[in-house]
Amino acid sequence: IAYTQGQEDFKGKRILISGGGTREHLDPVRFLGNPSTGKMALALAQAASDRGAIVTLVHGPIAPELLSLSPDYKLISVVSADQMEAVIMSHLVESDIIIMSAAVADVKPANYADYKLPKKELPTELKLESVTDILANLGTLKKNHQTLIGFAAQTGDIVNPALEKLKRKNLDIIVANPIDQPEAGFGTNTNQAIFIDANGQQKNINSCSKLELAHRLLDFVKIKGISPEQ
Ligand code: CTP
Ligand code: CA
């Protein structure tokens, strides 16, 4: 088997994973969102718990058929970026590794109506506010023993924007993800990526299942020595 199965090389490590897309509601039935399905985060949670980690997955709305009935990890469901931020902050101190694979909104509607707006009342222009950058906040709060991993879903050149985000958000690793490739990105069962660490070292991962990519990412974390002391 290609994966590192049966080997509990992350035993006892606490890993906090975010996944799926957040939704920023304008009213109870309308929102700004994105096509993230949460499959990459579910694969990460599965891989990490199979390797002995104690995993918490905080996720935006995920199709029920993708969720395992009895997962080996803790699932916390949220809707908005603000809610995701609150859950992540409350789990931060105890976490050894934090992996932000969620597609978090950058903006939210400035106003929320708590009733369904009749279409006649819908604004013709939407006033937006920016959303907190959760990962950038984590980068300022990170302790030395913690490993912080971000994702950068990019089109076109993936390496330079990912490097810029790695530095700007004070990350240990960024997963540069080419979402304009047919076998990568939103909703697919496969993915491809370039892992980049804070020293600029890169590892190219060709198209493979999201589960395998998750295992390769854990291998990369381990090789960096930034995680489990055995
Ligand atoms: N992220 C976050 N909070 C946000 C936006 C992004 O924590 N409000 C995280 C994502 O989970 C991801 C990383 O930041 O791990 C990079 O997200 P990305 O959208 O690529 O970066 P941005 O800084 O938002 O830049 P842009 O959208 O302009 O490319
Ligand atoms: Ca963004």
Automatic annotation (TrEMBL):
One of its GO terms (biological process) is coenzyme A biosynthetic process. The keyword Ligase applies. This is Coenzyme A biosynthesis bifunctional protein CoaBC. One of its GO terms (cellular component) is phosphopantothenoylcysteine decarboxylase complex. CTP binds at residues 106, 116, 151, 165, 169. Residues 15-230 are annotated as: Phosphopantothenate--cysteine ligase. Its EC number is 4.1.1.36, 6.3.2.5. Catalyzes two sequential steps in the biosynthesis of coenzyme A. In the first step cysteine is conjugated to 4'-phosphopantothenate to form 4-phosphopantothenoylcysteine. In the second step the latter compound is decarboxylated to form 4'-phosphopantotheine. Catalyzes two steps in the biosynthesis of coenzyme A. In the first step cysteine is conjugated to 4'-phosphopantothenate to form 4-phosphopantothenoylcysteine, in the latter compound is decarboxylated to form 4'-phosphopantotheine. Residues 11-221 form the DNA/pantothenate metabolism flavoprotein C-terminal domain. Binds 1 FMN per subunit. The keyword Iron does not apply. In the C-terminal section; belongs to the PPC synthetase family. In the N-terminal section; belongs to the HFCD (homo-oligomeric flavin containing Cys decarboxylase) superfamily. GO terms for molecular function: FMN binding; metal ion binding; phosphopantothenate--cysteine ligase activity; phosphopantothenoylcysteine decarboxylase activity. Its cofactor is Mg(2+); FMN.
